[in-house]
Amino acid sequence: MSINNNPTGKNGYGAKNYPSDDILKAALQQYASERLTVAQKRLRLAIEHSLEIGATNLWKLERRFLIPNVRRPPPDEIATEHVLQIVRADINQRRGTGTIMAILANQGVMLPRDFIRKVLQVHAPEGLNMRFPGSGKIKRSQLSARGPCHQFHADGHEKLGAKALTSMGGVGLDIYGIKDQWSSFIVHLVVVPNNRLADTIGHVYLDMVEKTLSIPITMVTDKGSEVGHLFAHQRGLRQAYSADIDVAQFPPVVQIKSVHNTPIEGLWHWFLENSGRNLKDTIVSGQTNGIFHPGDPTHAQLFNYLWPKVLQIQLDNFVTFWNNHRIRTQKSKPNMSGTTPQHAFIAPDPAQAEKCAIAVEQPVVDALRRQIATSRADSMRFVVGPFAEVADEAYKAIGSPDLSNIDEAWNIFGMMLPHMHM
User: Fold this and answer.
1) Which among 273, 324, 305, 284 is positioned nearest to 110, based on CA atoms?
2) In this structure, what DSSP letter does residue 347 have?
3) How far apart are CA 370 and CA 362, in angstroms?
4) Between 291 and 332, where is the model more confident?
5) Where do the Integrase core domain residues begin and end (predicted)?
6) Cβ-contact 87, 127 below 8 angstroms
7) Distance CA 321, CA 331 (A)
8) Which of 419, 415, 410 is nearest to 390 (CA)?
9) Whole-Å CA distances, 207 to 177, 210, 307, 366
């Protein structure tokens, strides 16, 4: 005679309230992309989906949804081709083993570090030599924060701007980024028409706030005039929602020289190493190959229509890579290490950090937008309405091709040109 020792059907973790299969599968795929440990996956499920399960149930769910695992890699010949695809796309050969592993993980391909290194040793040894420790890495001083959302660092990046693209006749692509200091999480990264305009950066700041309806304790920026609205709105929101925080000890805004704003400046270095140099070479190739004519107004406007879209996809890809990549354990580092920026931002270890986000309300954010003279749509507009409408029709006429492959961007540009009749 069998005895049912668990007549309720509930285990030690209590009754389960599972999210839908689509949501659960997406969450498990995200955790695989970050290469989280079992304990970290269970923690994230509890925080993000109020689902507390044991390791065995987690394993069963991953098997059910066919979540990739580094212990079940594809056959060697297929795995090798995955690695070589990343190598071939890296014109400057700056992506190392960890970077390639993170990029592939975001694509759903889980490969062991040793396997990737062996492929690089055989097929791309020159890249390994270039990345030998000490070969040109920028040295940074240690920084510390209380936890996620204690300090956000913001600044513009102009390595793809008009001054950097000297052969392109005045066109360029400005970028603005915001990064959490403690977790190294990229909060916001966007291509903008001009990162020197206060109205534009004011809207970028409010876009960042709207993502989570919260602000950090402190925004760290440079001393340029473009942060005027950002400065005023951060101070106003701090006063409205956390007047009890000592502004002398924890100021709402700190302004320093860009070269000293190391968390965001260091990010530009990694962006260049991962994607930026390849992007710049590809952009300039349009002029050197005779596709783009700098003196032609139609060419300039079509560049401003097409390339911001192409770049934003690349920025989004970089953000996914960066936030999902694992930062190696550094015992002497005061900020987070040993996990991914995404995991540290969402689920910081209470023994190491405290969550510092200050909640705000949407109507207040809307009211602040109305204080900016230029609307968000106009401040983020790269081309005027009539040209944009013609370009939209031209893009549709050639079949609305995928813009995620930068190697095809100039071909798409060339196909659109015959349709640009104003």
Assistant:
1) 324
2) S
3) 13
4) 291
5) 147-333
6) yes
7) 24
8) 419
9) 12, 5, 21, 11
* Amino acid sitting at position 330: Q
Its sign, for the CA torsion 374, 222, 317, 355, is negative
Q: Read off the tokens for 378.
A: 């106009």
184-227 residue pLDDT tens: 999 999 999 999 999 999 999 999 999 999 999 999 998 889 99
Type of residue numbered 238: R
Query: What pLDDT, on the 0 to 100 scale, is given for residue 253?
Result: 95
Q: Which residue is it, tokens 């795929």? A: 29
Give the CA distances from residue 241 to residues 237, 319, 363, 365, in Å, rounded to whole numbers and listed in that order.
Answer: 6, 29, 13, 12
Q: Amino acid identity of 277?
A: R
Contact predicate 83/119, CB 8 Å: yes
Distance CA 253, CA 221 (A): 8
Domain ranges in the chain are 21-64, 76-130, 151-276+328-379
Whether CATH 1.10.3210 fits 151-276+328-379 = no
Burial class (CB in 10 A: 0-12, 13-18, 19+), 34: buried
Residues 6+ apart with CB under 8 A from 18: 24, 51
For every residue of 203-250, DSSP letters joined together read HHHHHHHHHHTEE-SEEEE-S-GGGHHHHHHHHHHHHHH-TTS-TTTS
DSSP conformational letter for 166: G
Identity of the amino acid at 407: D
Higher-pLDDT residue of 349, 144: 349
Q: Please write the tens of the pLDDT for every residue from 21-51.
A: 999 999 998 888 888 888 998 999 999 999 9
Report the distance separating Cα 334 and Cα 347, nearest Å. 17
**Nearest residue to 373 via CA among 197, 193, 199:** 199
Question: Higher model confidence: residue 203 or residue 278?
Answer: 203
Alpha-carbon span 181 to 183, nearest angstrom? 6
Residue 131 makes CB contacts below 8 A (sequence gap 6+) with: 94, 96
Cβ of 361: how many Cβ atoms within 10 Å?
12
Q: What three-state secondary structure class fits 163?
A: coil
**335-376 pLDDT, tens per residue?**
666 789 999 999 988 888 888 999 999 999 999 999 999 999
Mean pLDDT on 9-17: 57
Beta bridge partners of 220: 153, 254
Start-to-end Cα distance in the chain = 86
